[in-house]
Each structure stands twice: as C-alpha cells, then as structure tokens.
Amino acid sequence: MSATLDILFVADARFEGGTSTALAVEIRAAARAGLRTGLLAIKGPLLGLPFPMHPDLRKLIDDGLTERIDPDMRLTARLTLIHHPTIVENRPTRRLSITTDKLLIVLHHPMYDGNGRRQYDLDRVIAHASDAFGADVHLAPVSAVVRDSLPRLLPPYAHMLEEDWGNLVELDDWPAKPVRPPAYPVVIGRHSRPDPLKWPTAEDAHLAYPADGSRFRVRALGADAYLAEKYGTLPTNWELIPFAWDGVPDFLGTLDFYVYFHDPAWSEAFGRTILEALATGLVVILPPHFAVLFAKAAVYAEPAEVESVIARFVADPVLYRSQCEQARRFVENNYDAAIYSDRVARIIGDETTSPAGDGLFPPLPQRNVLFASSNGIGVGHLTQQLAIAQRLPPDLTPVFATMSYSMKAAVQHGYQAHFLPHHRILEADPEDWNTCLAEELFELVAHLRPTVFAYDATAVFEGVTRALDMFPDIFKIWVRRPLWQESHRVFLEFSDSFDAVIEPGELAETFDHGPTAACRKEVFLVPPVLHLDPSERMSRESARAALGIPDGMTVVAFQLGAGANFDVKDLRAALLAEVLRRPDTIALEIQSPITPNAAGLEILGERHRTVELFPSFRFSRAFDAAISAAGYNTFHEQVLGSIPTLFVPNEGDEMDLQASRARWAELTGRGWMMRRDYDLGFAAQHVERLLDPLERAAVIRRCQSIVWKNGAVDIARYVEDHARMLRTDWDITKLGST
Amino acid sequence: MTPPACNICGSSAFGDTYGKAGSAFIRKNVRCEGCGSLERHRLIFEVLRMRGLLSGNRRVLHLAPEECLATILRNRFGGNYLCGDLDPGQFSFPVTRIDLCSDLDRFAPASFDIVLHNHVLEHVACDYKAVAARLDGLLKPGGLHIFSVPFLEGGFREALDERTDDYRTDHFGQWDHMRIFSPEDFLQTLGSALPVPEEYDATRLVPAERLFAINVPEDAWRGFNNNSVFLLEKRQPEDAFAVSPATHLASARPPHRPDAVLFVSANGIGQGHLTRQLAVARRLKHRPAAFLTMSYSAGIVRDMGFPVHFVPHHALSGEEPGAWNARLATEIELLLDAYHVTTLIYDVNFVFDGIIEVLRNHAKLQAVWIRRAMWPSHHASYIGAGVHFPIIIEPDDYAAALDAGPTTTDRAKTTLVPPMLLIDPSERLERGAARQSLGLPQEGFVVLVDLSRSSNPDLTHLHGRLLDDLLARPDIHIVELKSPLTGNVAPRHPTRHRLVTLHPAYAHSRAFDAAIVRAGYNTFHEHIAGGIPTLFVPDESPDMDRQVDRARWAQERGAALMHRLGDGEAGLSAAIDRLLSADARAALTAACAAITGARWQNGADVLAGMLEGRFDGEDTE
C-alpha cells in the first residue's frame, strides 16, 4: 500500500540549533493548515557525535503532528523538502521508494564560509537528491546571503526558487517583552548554540561586550568553558548561561539590548537567533553586513561603536521604544509562521487537504534490534538491555545475543535469545574463538537484518567488531557504563567501531576518574538506567504477602552476589548472624537465576530464607533494609528505590569500581559501606546502624531527595529514532575501495 | 496616549516628505523614518491587514513599488507578487521592467487579485485612460484595484509632447509629470475610465481613531487629495448577489492561530438552523469552525467533523432562565477562548440574553446574525435584538414575495444572500449510485416521505394515512427519513417501506422519483433547486416559520404541489395521483429549473467567502 503525504520533510533531525527549530515551526504550521506531513530523518555527515533527535521535532512526532517515516516505506508526496544541503552531499545508502511531485532543497547555509572555504558541493547535493527522489531539484535559499553565494549556472534538472525560504517564527512562542526604558547598568545579551565561531575575535568581544560592570551587564546563553578557551579570563560582569533547549524567550525578556557579533570565519546565513531577539522586541545591534537581512529592524554598528549606540538609546526612551516596536513588527510582517501555508500552496497548489484523507497512515515496517552483551556470571548488562528493550515501541522487535548465563531472563520476557559462549567456559584459544564469534554474529546479523545493533559490555571483542565491519549501514550503539578500572582502558579504542556511545549516568559520577571520564563530551549521556521504575514496584502489602512475611517482622534483604570472583563467605556469615540475632528479623537471601549452587547454602533457621526473585526490585517495598553488593543495577535500584542499604562492594579485578559507589553512598548519607578486607570485625556495629529506625529514615529522606528520571527511556527513544534513520554520514561510493 | 506610529514598521519617528522647497507636495511630519511610508501607504496597509488580504494565494501586481510595501508583499506572496517599473535601475531590490504604455498585453486579463499603484498614472506617457482600463482588466472578478494619484486645483491638464522640466513643474507639479489630476473634474477624467467613487472619505475604509493612530492626518481624510486611496472592487459579471467584502467581515489580522468561527444555534427537535450553519462551516477553507447548539441533532455536526458543544435549553434542563442565560454566556466565552474565535454566527430568531451579554463583553467579536425571513408575526418583538449584530445575513427565500412577516420591515441593514444549502444540487449522487447505496431497486417508483419529526399531532395523523394510501398502490416504494430521535418504528410493508437515517439526505435525493415533505426552509429550497417533483405538506404549527406561504408560492409557479391539513382525505388522494403522473412531474421539474435559472449560487458559499475575505472568483464557484 502506498501512503500519500502533502509534504515529506527530509532532515537531519539531530541539529541542535536554528535548522531544527525552523523545521519544527514549518511542521507545526503545516499541521495547522491541515496538511499531512511526514519526517524522514537523515543521519548526515555534519554531526559525528551521538546527538539525539531535537526534542522539538521528537515532540511533533509524539504529538502526531507529523508522521515518522521509515526509509523503506512506499510513499507519494506532493512536495519533498530537504532541509540543509549537507545531508545529501553523500548518496543515501539505501534505495528509496518515494515519489514526489516537487522536490525542494532548503539551503540553510551559504556555499562558502567567511574564509572562503566551500561548505558543501552543490553539484553533488543536486545530483544525489535528484537520484534519490527521481525528480527535478528546486533550490530554496533561506536568505539573500545564501542566494548570492550560489553559482549562476545550474544543471538542467535544477531550478532556483524565486522566493527566499525564510525562517519563520511562531509569534505566540516569542511574546514581546514589556517596553521599559533602559537605564545604566543596561543588560546586554546574546544567545547561540555553544560554538566559539559564534563569538567575535577577542578584541571585538571586549568592545562589543564591555567589561565596565557599572554600566553593563552581559548575559550570554549558550556560553560556557569554551569562551575562556577562546578569550582567556573573562570579565566579571559576563554571566554565562549554558545552552538549553527551552527558556530562551524568558532569557530574552530579561535583556535591554541584543548584541551579536561573530567570528570572521563564520558566515551567518540568516541568524535565527537574531530573528528571535527581534520578535521579542529588543533593540538589536549587529555588524553592518546583516543590514541586507534585517533592514531597519536592527541597528548596525562596528564593535567599537556599540557603547555609543547604547548611550544614544538610553538617552532617548522614545527612540528606544520605537526601535523595539520596529523589531517586533518586522518579524510579524515578514516571518510570521502564519504565512507558511501560503508559501507551500504556491508550490503545490491550493488543495490543502490530503487526497487520500480516508485511510489511516500505514504502520511503520517491523524492524529488528539486536542486543548483544557479554558477562557470564553477571546479569547486569542483560538487565540494562532489557530495560531498553521493554521501552521500545511495538514496531521494533528486540532480539538478544548474550554470553550471560542469565539468558533465561530475556527468554522469560518473551524475547528471542541466542547464547554466545565466552572463550573461558569453552577453554578455547581466544584467537580461534574470535574467528568463530565473528562468523556466528555475521550469520545472525545477516539473518535478522537488524536496523540497530546495541552492544552492552565493557570489553569489546574483536569477533564483534569484525562482524560489524561487514555491515556498515547498521546503526551500532555501545552502551557503556562509567566507573571503569584503569586496566580496561584498552577497550576505549573500540569506540570508533560504533556509531554512538551511550553512557548511562552514575550517581557516584564525581568519584569517577577512570578511562571513560575524559570522553564524556563524545558520548550521549543519559540519567541512570533502571530496569523497573521504582513506582512500578508492588505495594508493600502485596510484596510481603507474596513473600509470606508475617506482620511485624523486619526484613533484611541480602544480595551479595554469587561470590565466584570475590569471596564474601565469611562476611556474609557474620552479617547473617548479626541480623538473625535479633528476635524480629527475617534475613531474605535473594538468588539470581544463575546462583550456581543454591543447595550449598546453609540455612540458619526458619527466619533465614532464600528465594529466587527476578527482578527482585519488584518486591523491594517488602524490605526494611538491605545488604547488597554495589553493582550498577543493584546500587541504583537500592538508592533510587530508597531502600536503606549496607553496600558491600565487590572488589574483584574484572569489576567496575564498586567501592567508589559504596563510598559515595556512605558520604552522601544515601546508604552505608562495609568492605570485606577492612571491616570484617565491625559487622555488629554495621547491622546495629542498619536496623536503627532513625538512621534508616534519614537515608530514605536523602535518597528521596534525588531528582531522577529513567535513562532507559532516553536510550529506547534514541534507538527508536535511529532505527528509522536514512544514512548519508558515510560515502557508500567508496565502499570496498579501501 | 500612545503617540502615532507607523503600522507598517512600528516606528514612531516621522519626518517631512522629500521634495524641492516650495513644491506643492511637501508635507510635514508624515514620512515614516523607519520604512519611509507615507499616509497613503499606511492607509493601504491598514486596509489590507484589516481585510485579511495579506494572506492567501493571491497574485499581486505592484507598480512603481514602494519598498515599505514591496518587502512585505514579496515575503507574503512570494512568486505570486510581481513588481514592475519603467526604470528598474532606481530600485535596490529586483523589479521587472514594465512600460505601461506597451507591456500590459503581456499579462493575461483577469489574472491578478490585487493591482496596486500610487502616483503612477500622472507619469504615463500615453493615454492614461487606456492604461487605467487595462490595469483594471487585469483583475479577476472580486479583485481589488488600489491606487492613488496627485491632485492640483485648476482642472485636469496634460501634455504628452516635449516640454521643459520647468514647464512641467509649473503646470503639473513635478518635472516628470505628464499631467495632473484635479479634484473638480476627477469624475469626468479618470472617473470616465474607472468606477471611482463620487466622494472620498477615508473613515469609510478605516475608523477615525485608527487613522490618527497610524498618522494619517485629518486633512487627508476627505475629498480628492494626494493621499486619497481608491479601492475599486472588480465586479462579478452579472452577479445579483455580489456581496461587498466588507471590512468588518474579514478577519482583522493574519492570525497566528487561525481565527475560528463559532456557530451558535437553538432548536431542540429541528435541524434547520444547524444544517444551515453546517452549510457555511463546510465551505470555510481557512478558518476552523466550532458549534454550540441546543439541538438534539448535535451529532450531525460531530459526524461532519466539527467540534460541537450541546447546551440544553432551559425548558429542558429546568434551570431558572436568568441562571441559564448566565451559564450560556459562560459556556460561549469558554469556547471563544478555547478555539480562538473571532466571529460568532448566531442563527435563531430569538436572541437569548446570554448571547447579548457575550456580545456586550466582547466588543471585538464579530457578530453575525443569520436571520431567515418568513417569520411568524408573533415573533415581531424579537426583531429589536438586531441592534446587537453589526451584520445581519438574510438567506433569500424564494417565496419572499409572499412574506408579510416582521423581518420585511427591517431589511435596511441586512445583507441578502442566495438560499443556503448544505449540499449543492450538483454535489448529489447520481441516481443509480444513490439507489444502490440506499438498497433500492434500480427500477421501481420511489417516493421520499419526510413528515415525521414533528410535534404537530394533526400532521402525525395525516402521515399515517398517507403511508397507507401510497402502499395501497402497487410498485410504489417509500423511503422515509427518520432521525435518531424517532425511535423504533416498524415499517408498514416488509419490502416497500423503508425507514432510513440519512444525513445529509439530500445527497441521495436523485434516487427519488417524487417527494412528500414539509416546507421547511432547507427542504423547500433543496427540493426546488434540485428539481425534485414534490408535494409539500406545510407544517402549520404556530411556532414554525411560514411553511404554507412557501408551499403556496411554489404551487402558484407550478413548481410543486401542496396539500394542507385542512384539505381533507379526498384532496390528499388527488394530490398523490398528480404527483405520481409522469407528465405532471416533468412539468414540476421544468418549473423548478425556471426558478433557479441556469446559474445556481449557494448562499453558504457567499457567506463563507465573506467570512474569509475571499475576492477571487474561483473560490466562490
């Protein structure tokens, strides 16, 4: 079945700045005009880092204002709009089944930057777009600046649109600030995405943003440490506010003057941020080359003249007011999003309702996501992947391949799972084993044809990377938890084998000085990941009933792990004895699906119980306290679930730095720490404290003060978005030639 | 008080006009320092803005383009905006070279929605009347010709031959003027080529307080002067119902949220008002619509895809009328806010106090009263409520000639539009398709009967007898409309009597060979316009409009048959006999066609067009 759209938007939806904001305004305006639109997301070559989809665009999909489009869908569009030329500078790596009446490329950027360097190869852009969509190409520059940078002579299948495809502004989103006459100290401000090129040379910066704190306050949104790198020590009257998706209108409302100068190497095509400042009704001061774009809506000056221009407006409130009004009116007249439907109608005609207004939009094609993980005895990586898999939409099918003996957990959740034995249990030669692993994975991937491959482990095996190299178009994610031991540093170099590295947050982040800490800027950071949200747990009554806990008993849950690589037998015995010494306690030992010899555990009376629970966190409201190792999942469950816990870190060689987590809990009052080799003699004191109701209440209170949302949601959304992305971030024509 | 400001760019700084000292055209403090606009530009922009003409798919021709207007028009209309001049080199933006004396043939006649030129005609070095007429000819029907020219006292004068600059300055006011117009003979000069008004008064275009606010000084308001802005609407050829797209009807401002229209109606058991409003709502292309109604048929609105809010009449809810009216006002106000409503369309003879309260509290809300004619005389006291509605739309009634009801004396401020129908006759299904979709045999004689849904017991009685009479005749199939309110009524014949719920039923009416229906406004006009051979049985309950007058009117023209309740059983049988005779039906259909004429226009289209400030002819087809 072929679906019909009025407009298909084709864009790299990960752009942080004006390109995405402008696109969001267009999509919203089209929806308002009753047009049916879709968004085909591209992973273009410009952004190498693992940016997620822009939240404004994602929200438009979530709100149903535009359809998510899969590259394999069979579609007919009346108009296809490619936003930003660079996204088709490489050929799309898949054949599309999209036909379009009109094909238009919005050129958001001049062909050359301020230094005369070419920003994109227009001939390639035109050829690739035309090949991919099978239509003549219409070029739509966003401004006169871009138009003037373009060649006069175009290929015969390319045409220049007569009108500029100006950025539009949803005026309701940018309320005009109340006009107040400015007085010293005046507030000068600016905003941009965090990029040093958006700032002028040091000399100009000090003229345009004067350091005299008695007359000027300088507020910059989207500025942080990089400015100090560019300028050295910054004046004390500069207030730097980190880049944020929202809150910009409020920020602009606090300013008296908007002053924007940028690096000579930068070429500003349009300056959406300037438009936003104008919409807010600010007096905007710009370098003279902007006059062609903003005419009398702004004031033009050299950096050295900024102070005198401001002085003129401070001295003349009527002039100030008039300039503010002109700024706002300029945007109303020329860039109001309300004109968008007319603009589109000029291209596709006046028929504003979809011709196939009858049916529902066809569903997205079903796709596989392959989750691969290591760990033999542990269940941590698998649990984390389950957390993600369970949050995927139904049109994505998770499939597991794991070395974990707890594979059962995935099967019990209803997923197809494949077991990959680690060379250690096979006693295989690692070299041979990697070859086999590569072949096995190759077969699995070739069979499943997953659109996303998600890897969760600290160690990256060569067999994995070798297999992945055979599938350059699959989107490969490495979900990599922090708090690495130094000895794991060798695995960092495998980062390049993946398209994205995602790092789940760590409550004890400030204790992390391991190998991954220096790479935070290159990864997609999400909040700590939990399999179950604390609110998804059973109520205390149900959980206690399910576990058969009599009323009035104090339950201490024990989760000290299998002990295979870090023997805590003695410590466990001491703690058990101490807990059971009290008359009203139950020691509940929780075994994972893979605890090797449950039978070997000695049962110390009827108040000592063992139980196999997975996931045990679901029952945890039944517990009054816990004694637990400090692996990533358990630790974050205990703290975020506000369970007063004595952490006994597993300090085995292959583990992450559990001691750091436990220490963080101890020092921030969110739990306690007890170490096997140091504290064995203090079991009585530790249990005493753990069972003291006041102490426990204090820990609960501290734990509840943590503001958190589940990073599993962010990762699942990231996977969902990337599962449907068409890739142009690598040059498929060079495949096999190197 | 806020100082005057330029409505185009927002600047409040004004300077003097440029020109040589002593020039007749120099004026103080009127040139906007922000965008360079003069009085006439601000006036034009204000009119375009007020009438909602700055959006939509319009083609605009702008000659000697002033930058203050050109920038906005280009951004708004993109490739549909064309600006031209004899000397494009003097402009800082792209302008096409157009010589008005020779190049106008390049453009197709009737191809622009707006033609705009200020102080151009005095420069044209050929026959200015021919140029003016040609420019006018470029407009589509309903399009706007907007222009201004300079004036000097002393009578029109021109010189097309070689003259010195000084001569031209002395005689025509400027070195490059070929002529100068004069107030005293303007109607005889340019007025002989274009339909210019006999008098000029800017306050008819824009309210006086706005003229002050946008710095159009009072000396430019009245009489022919250099800043008199002429707006000539291109007439629809032979269009009896060309409704001037009045300033007060178009939305005031190109909306960020589209300006919605709220339709408010009463009637519990009937559907008439609601149907008429739906007719308008479904023809709105750019403005969303929402409904508030007391009709039990609110579901038909929802089924057509519009949001609808049901408010029971106080007689039903048992509320005290005062409290009920207050609640009605509150409910309406919530809707105004929720849907960004800027126009309220009311369609009930009686105007509730709650409505009046809303209109008093919302001065900016455009209030339109759709008021059918043919009121029963005891509704006369309701007429006064018209004072609350600046706009009263009266859908024409074919039978208006027989109307002696209260509305006839209150026509001064009403705008007459053609009858409003939900479905155009041409939108109906073909006979075969309609029969198939109703499950009717393709052959066989089908009569539509719609007499139920009445609270009139006499009519109910007659209804029963009529069905018996029809079913006693062989091969007659009856299709009866029932509403969801009818309840379960058993058919009187297993195959030949069918009860269907159909909305809009008219879409299927080509399936019927004849009809026996009441003469309510909608049904009456649908049947006449659709040429359906019909026997009208007017509902003569005291609260209904004057159905008997309509039925009589049609009968007198041979376009329908009529049976009144008092006519007796024998009369009914005879009327049915006539209705079933093929010749009689052919005659009825022919007479209907004579009434509607070749050119059918739906009043709902006209009103929808007014609400959207549409000017282009094709939109109102």
UniProtKB/TrEMBL annotation, chain A:
Domain of life: Bacteria
Gene3D superfamilies listed in its UniProt record: Glycogen Phosphorylase B
Protein's recorded name: Glycosyltransferase
Native organism: Shinella lacus
TrEMBL record, chain B:
Sequence ranges assigned to domain Glycosyl transferase family 28 C-terminal in this UniProt record: 511-593
InterPro entries listed in its UniProt record: Glyco_trans_28_C, Methyltransf_11, SAM-dependent_MTases_sf
GO MF annotation terms: methyltransferase activity
UniProt superkingdom: Bacteria
Domain Methyltransferase type residues, every copy: 100-147
One Gene Ontology term from the biological process aspect of the record: methylation
Pfam families attached to this UniProt entry: Glyco_tran_28_C, Methyltransf_11
Keyword set includes GTP-binding: no
TM ranges: none
Key words of the record: Methyltransferase, Transferase
Keyword Transferase: yes
Protein name: Methyltransferase domain-containing protein
Lineage of the species this protein comes from: Bacteria, Pseudomonadati, Pseudomonadota, Alphaproteobacteria, Hyphomicrobiales
